[in-house]
C-alpha cells in the first residue's frame, strides 16, 4: 500500500523542490519522482542543475548539492486531480510553515498547479515570480515533470535551465 514519503529537508537550501504529491510508485518505493515515466531526474541533469543523471533512489543525495524535496500534499495518488480541496488547504499551511522555518533561497514549484494552490493566485507565468508568499524566499514556477505533461522536453529543460542560472548568479 503506498504511503507518504519522507521529505528531504535542511535549513538554507539553495532549492526546495515542491511537487503536488507522491505518485503511487513513489509511495511504494519511498523516493521522490520514482515513476519511470516521470522525467524529473533527466530534466535536472539536462538543465545543468545536476552534474550527472541521478536516480530516484538517490534523492537524499541531492541534499549535498543544496536541493531538498517535499510535496504540498503527502498522500500518494495516481493523478493530481485526485487530491481534495481539504488536502490542499492543510498542505498549503504546512508547506508555508516549512518554508518559513527552513528559509531556502528558492522554492521551485514542480507544476504550475502546485504554485497556484500554494499562492492562492489565479495565474502565474513560468519562472521567477515577482512577489513571494514568504518574504525573502524566491519562488520559481516550473512545469511538472510528469510524463502526462504535453510540453516538449526541450521546452521544459529550458525553463529549468533558467533556475540553474538563477542559482549560479546568486552564489
TrEMBL record:
SUPFAM superfamilies: Uracil-DNA glycosylase-like (SSF52141). Gene3D superfamilies: Uracil-DNA glycosylase-like domain (3.40.470.10). Keywords: DNA damage, DNA repair, Hydrolase. Residues 6-163 form the Uracil-DNA glycosylase-like domain. The keyword DNA repair applies. The keyword NADP does not apply. GO terms for molecular function: pyrimidine-specific mismatch base pair DNA N-glycosylase activity; uracil DNA N-glycosylase activity. GO terms for biological process: base-excision repair, AP site formation. InterPro entries: MUG/TDG, Uracil-DNA_glycosylase-like, Uracil-DNA_glycosylase-like_sf. It comes from the Bacteria. This is G/U mismatch-specific uracil-DNA glycosylase. It comes from Laceyella tengchongensis.
Amino acid at each position: 500500500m503506498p504511503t507518504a514519503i519522507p521529505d528531504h529537508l535542511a535549513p538554507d537550501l539553495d532549492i526546495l523542490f515542491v511537487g503536488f504529491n507522491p505518485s503511487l510508485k513513489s509511495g511504494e518505493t519511498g523516493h521522490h519522482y520514482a515513476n519511470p515515466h516521470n522525467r524529473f531526474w533527466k530534466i535536472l541533469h539536462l538543465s545543468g542543475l545536476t552534474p550527472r543523471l541521478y536516480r530516484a533512489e538517490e534523492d537524499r543525495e541531492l541534499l549535498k548539492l543544496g536541493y531538498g524535496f517535499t510535496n504540498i500534499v503527502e498522500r500518494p495518488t495516481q493523478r493530481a486531480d485526485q487530491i481534495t480541496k481539504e488536502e490542499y488547504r492543510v498542505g498549503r499551511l504546512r508547506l508555508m510553515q516549512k518554508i518559513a522555518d527552513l528559509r531556502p533561497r528558492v522554492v521551485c514549484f514542480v507544476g504550475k498547479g502546485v504554485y497556484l494552490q500554494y499562492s492562492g493566485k489565479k495565474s502565474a507565468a513560468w519562472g521567477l515570480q515577482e512577489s513571494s508568499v514568504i518574504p525573502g524566499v524566491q519562488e520559481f514556477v516550473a512545469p511538472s515533470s510528469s510524463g502526462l505533461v504535453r510540453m516538449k522536453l526541450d521546452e521544459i529543460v529550458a525553463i529549468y535551465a533558467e533556475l540553474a542560472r538563477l542559482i549560479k548568479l546568486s552564489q
